[in-house]
Amino acid sequence: MTISQDNKKILLLIAVAYLFSVAMRFIWVYQFEGYEQFIFNGQFMINTNDGYYWAEGARDLLSGIHQNGDLSPTDSAASQLTYIFANILPFSFESIIFYMPVFLSSLIVIPIILISYSFRRLDVGFIAALLSSIAWSYYNRTMAGYYDTDMLNIVIPIFLLWSLIWAINSNQDKFLLITALDILVYRWWYPQSYSLEFAFFGLILLYTLVFDRKNIYNYKLLAIMLFAMMMADNIIRLPLVIGLYVFFKNEKFNKYTYYVLGLGVIAFMITGGLNPILGQLKGYVFRETVNAVSNGLGLHFFTVMQTVREAGHISFETFANRISGHVITFLLSIAGYIWLSYRYRIMLLAIPLVGLGFLAMNSGLRFTIYAVVPMAFGIAFIIAEIANKMPSYFLQYATIFIGSLLVLLPNIVHIKEYKVPTVFNKNEVLLLDNLKKKSSREDYVVGWWDYGYPLRYYSDVFTLGDGGKHSGEVNFPISYILTKPQAAAAKMARLDVEYDVRAYDISEQNKTVSEQNQTKLFSTIEEMTKAGGFNDTNDFLTALENGAVTLPKKTRDIYLYLPYRMLSIYPTITLFSNLDLMSGDKFNNPLFFASQAISEDSEFIYLQGSVAISKENATVKLGDKTVEMNRFVKTWYDKDHKLRMATKRFSSMSNINVIYMADYGQFLILDEATFNSLYIQLFVLENYDRNLFEAVEMTPYAKIYKLKI
User: Fold this and answer.
1) Domain ranges of the chain
2) What fold does the segment set 426-575 form as a domain?
3) Main-chain phi, psi angles of 25, to 5 degrees
4) Mean pLDDT lowest for which of 61-70, 566-575, 627-636?
5) Predicted pLDDT of residue 274
C-alpha cells in the first residue's frame, strides 16, 4: 500500500512538531542534570504533588499489595497505564513516571495537524501544533516530571474535537464510533470530563437545529454521544455504543434514529448525567468562604477552595501569558480565531474549549490550558494568511518562519526560566524512606494535606488528608493539631485517627464509599462532640483542652510530619481551625510573621513589611507601632547537626516573641499562642513533651515525631 503525498506531508509535520515538543521538555532535564537533591534511586523525582497519588496506585498494582481504605488509586487510568508501561518498557519505575508527561503530552500535535487537514490548511496546523505544545500553561502542566492526568487531559479532547469536525464534514459512519470511543477513553482517563463532553454535545445540537436539521447523520451522532456520556461504567457503555454503531450503519434503521435519541436523553438523565456539571459549577464558580454542613450539629468549616492558588482569580496579563505566551499574541489570537471561524465555520466547534479556558479569569489558572489550542489556531491563521499574501515562495516561508519564531520565543524563554523544583528534595525523601522502615502500613502520619500523597508514596502509610481529601471538615482537626498546644494537639491526633478509621469501617458496612474515592459519612469532629455527650463543639474543645475528654482505644501508631517548608504556609493552616464551628464566625487572626533580614544598621534589623527589630532594646516595630518583646530565641545547629537554642526573657506582660533561626536566616515574630503551638515547639524549637511524643527523625529539613498516647 502506497502512502499518498498528503499523508507523507502530514506524517512529516507531525514528526517534526512532536520532536520539537519533546526537545523543549528536555530543557529542564539538561538544566538540572547531576543535581543530587532532585534525584532519588538514580532518577529525577517528579515535581507535582498529585503525581504521587497516581504513582502510589501504579506501585501497588506492580507489587500486588493493596489495603482496604488506603485510598490507593489502583482503579485509575493513570495508574493502570503506568502499570502497563512499567511491565513492557525496559526502564525503572521512577524513569517511567518522570518521562511519561514528556512523550504523552507531545501527542497533542497529532489531532491539531489532522484538524487543519480537514480544511486543507496544514500550514496553520503546523504552526498551531508548535505553539500549543509549549504554551505556558500547557508546558507547566506537562513538563518533564509533571506526572499527572494533565499529560493527556488536553490531548484526548482535541482528538474528540478532531473526530467531531470530521464527523460533521464527512458524515462518515466510522466517525460515529470514533467519537463515542473518544468519549469513553476521555471519561476513563479523566472522570471530570463531563462538562466538556456536554458542551460539545450542546454545540453539535445547536449546529444541527440551526444549520442542518434535516441531516439524519447529526441525530445519530447526538444519540451515540449521549449513550457514551451516560453516568455508567465503561463495561456498560462500550457494548452499547458499539451496538449503536452497528445499528446506525444499516440505513433501513434510520427511521428509528429519533427514538434512539430520545432513549439516549432519558438514559443520560436517569443515570445522573447533569450532577457532575452542577457539582463543578458549585465548586469553582459559586464558591463560599465558609461551608455549613446542614445535617447533625450544622457545623461550619472553612472551604479549601479559598486557599488553592489554581482556583483563585488571576490578572489579565497572567491569563493571556499562560494561554499564548504574550499579551499581544493573545489579543491577535482572539482576532485570528474569529477570522478562522468565519472562514471555516467548523472551527466554531472549539468554542467549548475557549469558554472553559476563559473561565480561568474567574475560577483559576488551571483552566487556561483548555484555551491554548484554539488560540494557537487563531495566531497561526493570521501568520499563514499574511504569508500567503507574499509575492514569492521565499517570502512566504520567511514570513511563516519569522512569525512562528516571534510567537514561540516568549514561550521558549519561559521554559528556560521555569526551573520548578521537585516536590521534595533528596534529604526529605531519605527521611520518609527511613520512616517506612520503622512504621507499619496500618500506621498514620499526620501532616498538612499538601504532603499527603508523597507521604503515602514514600512511607507507605495512611494519612488524614491529601490532595483529594482536604475539605474543611477534614482539615479542621489537622489544623488544630498543628497550631494548638501540645497536650490538646496530641489528644486531637489520637481522636481524629481513630474516628477516621471508624468512618471507613462504617462506610464499608453501608457500602457507600469506594476505595478509589473515599469520603466520610460524617465529620470526625462532630462525632467526637456527640460521643463526648456535647451538643456544642466549642464545649467539647474546651473540655479537650482541659483534659476532660476520654480518648478512644489505641489501634495503631501515629506519626507527625513537620517539615521546614510548612513554615511558609502556617498562616493558611491556621485558617481552618481559627473559627467557631457552631456559628462560622472567624476568631482574630493569630500573629505569625516570617521574614529574612532585608538590611540592618546600628539600631535596627529591618524585615519585610515595615517590620524592624531593635538592637538596643527589646522592642519590635510593626509598622507605626512599637511593642515590647516577651522573649528572644536564637536557634542554630552545631557541628553534630544538633539543634542548639539560646533564650532571653524580657517582658512577661508582652504577647510578642521573636525567634531567629540562624541557619535558615529566618526571623519569626509570633504571639504567645502561636509560640506555644505544636509546630513551633516541635519543629522550630524541638521543645517537645516526652510524655506525649518521641523524636523519630530530626533533620533541618523535616522532623518526625511518634505519638505516645
Assistant:
1) 5-417, 426-575, 592-707
2) Pyruvate Kinase; Chain: A, domain 1 (3.40.1380)
3) -75, -15
4) 61-70
5) 72
